[in-house]
Every structure is written in structure tokens, then in C-alpha cells.
Amino acid sequence: MNETTRSTYALAIALLSVSAISHAADSAPSPIAQSSSSAAAMAKAILPQSPTPSKSDDYKDPDLWARIRSGYAIPDIDNALVAKHVQWYASRPDYLTRTSGRASLYLYHVVQELEKRGMPTELALLPVIESAFNPQALSNADAAGIWQFVPGTGRDFNLQQNMFKDERRGVLASTDAALTYLQRLYTMFGDWQLALAAYNWGEGNVQKAIQKNRALGKPTDFESLAELMPAETRNYVPKLQAVKNIIANPAQYGVALPTIDNTPYFVAVDKTSDIDLAVAAQLAEMSVDEFKALNPQFKKPVITGESTKILLPKENAEKFNLNLAQWGRALSTWTTHKITSARESIASLAAKLGTTPEVIRQANNIPPQMRLKAGSTILVPKTSATAGNDIAESIVENASMVLEADRGESRRNGRKLSGAQRFKASAAHAVAEIKSRVSRGSKPAVNANGRKRR
Known about the structure:
The protein is mostly helical. Helix content is 46%, strand content 7%. A hairpin with a 2-residue loop joins strand 9 and strand 10 (415-416).
């Protein structure tokens, strides 16, 4: 998904005043930036809602796929691109099975949120196109999570991104942000197909395409604008239509959809202190991998924050609470340390803390032959002096880590490293620099027409 600028209240009011909301943005200027929180609130307030949005608790069909079918509301398209993508998906049953398996963890929640907002339920299938429902998916433009937010757009919609977590990957926060963004785009264009194109290409680009066709006296619907769109966007809505067709009638395409129960897969559990990710998984009687699948936003071995929620299957949540009441040991074994001097090495810090350099490197994803610059904040094992302390919220929000090549590692036993070793160190340095720029909030490069490279 592409990072875009945000609408102002003035634009929202102008759009609302256009008769018959359809294609409201045809005559609107490109949006200009303003605070994301107000844009998100505005979108929720002004989106036309269905007169009687369905209530998920009243929906009795045991099959979640059937529930999705019942809420289809976006007009169909039928063209060669749709047929091409139907054939692609239908000929890859293993791909659909893997994607459905991942989707089974999150899909009920997405459908429920769509119904609460009165939105078309086929939008729940959009992560199939974006990420194959893989929360660890990462694009070339650093778009992350099942909804593929780039860093800047994530921040626009209040998705926290810091050293400890990335809410672009979290199920609850990213779904709320994605649906709010889609609502805003629908309000802007009055057309779900154009809203989807804007989700992929950017609202400014879609507005320019509309204005160009209007000036030529041409229609401004999605298919009429498709020839002005880049290939990715031109295929975007047909891909969703293809998946929609297969879900609507899998037997017609020789597809056997895995069953997904129409019941909540997870519940949210409050935590009131720092807790090691491995301890949380142990208390819930889950493997670490199973725990991470529901909580992919956590980037470190410790989950920080008093108000942070974790997601667990209902029966595991009950086990978690029971085991937590009987735990009687420290919940967290990690704290932070700020490097104050360039002379403070990972080795010397490890010796001071009674651990090994490898433990510190692994916890902080520090490549070999790289060292920490002064001012960096890293995760370290707790000592008796810090055993009872949680990591302060101010540290969580502002901590950063900057790496540089460790010149002290360039000689071993009086001789230089080999060419291969120097190349490895140089590559590690380049990777570290990229990661440090991302952690500082740098934005991905754009090409000439302003579109993010995915």
C-alpha cells in the first residue's frame, strides 16, 4: 500500500457537499497534510453507513466463508484480467490452503469489524492480495503486515513503530487503521473500486487520473481509468474480484476451501507489567511460534507497557490467567541500557552484566563485526539492581540503536581479515545502516510519479 497525503476538514466538508456522493473527488483538489488523528476521526464520522449493518452475534451460519459471501456489496467487474487471476489462484490449491490457514487466525475479527462499520465484507479478502495474510510480509518499500502499511502511512493512522513493537503487524491496530483508511477513500471517491485503487496507488494519483479523463470527456469509473494506472494498480481490483469469485463459488473453479469456523479465534488479555515473550507463551501453554502468530507486533524478547494487550485463543487465555496467578517468579528478565561512550563495547558490557556478547547481539539483532554508537539504547539482561523495574514508556517510545563497523575487529592475532571477511563486514554495515534509518523514521524512496516502490 502506498503512503499518501491526508485530507483536511475543509476537503471533507467540500466532498460532503457534492450531490449524490458518487465520484465526489472528481472535482476536489489533491489533499494536503494535516494531523492523522483528526483525519481518521473524520473518516469514521462521515462515511455513509448501511441503514442496518449486520450484527455479528446474530449471524448463525457456522461457516465464516458463507458469512463473507452474504455481505458482498462491491459491484462486480468481468474482464480478461479477472479471468487471468481466477485461473492463477484456482491452479494453486496449496497457496490457497496456506493463505486460508493463516487467515483463520484473523479473519473473524476482520469480518466483525467490517460489519460494525457497515462496510462490504469482501474487503476482508484484501489481505489475500496484499500479504497472503502473512503478518511478517515486508515489501521492497518496507510495507509491513497483513494490510501492508508503509511506515509513514502507518504513523498517519497512529500505528506505533518503535524499537519494541511495530503495530503495522498487529492484528487489532492495523485492521482498525486499514478500515479507517478505506472508509476515508470511499468517502472521497464514492466508489469502492476507486477507493481500492487509491489504497494501492494513492488518492492524489487517482484524482489526477479522474481529472484527465474528465477533461477528455471520458468516463471516470475504475475500468475507464485503468489504462492510466500502473500495472500493479490496474491488476489490483481484478485480483480482489478473482478471489471474491472463488470464495463465492469454489466448486465452480475446482477449489476446496478449508473450513473456517464462524467463531472468534482469539480474545484480548490485559497485561499490567513487562513480561518476557517466552514467559507469556509458557503461561498460555503455547509454543513461542503460536504466540507470535497472534502477536506479531512484538519485536523484542520482552513485551513492555502497562496497557498493552496480548491476543490468545480463549482456552489459552484461561490457562494464562490461571498460571499467572500461581507463577511466583519474575515475569521479565530484560531491561535497557544506553551506550554513553564509544569505548563501551558489547564485550565489556556483557562482562559487566555477567552474560555473553552473543546474548546481547541476538536480543538486539546486532550483526557480527558491528558495534554500537554512543547514544544507542539496547536490551540487556536484568541484574539484581534492576530486577523489579519495568522499562519506562518514555524509553520504549524514544529508544534507538545506531550501528557502525567495528574497526577493532579488523585485525585478529596481528593480521588483517581476508577479503571475504571484509566483504561480510561491509555488507553487515550496509544492512545495519538501512535498519537504523528505518528505525529513525526515514521514508521509502519514491519514483518520478510519487508512487512508493513496493
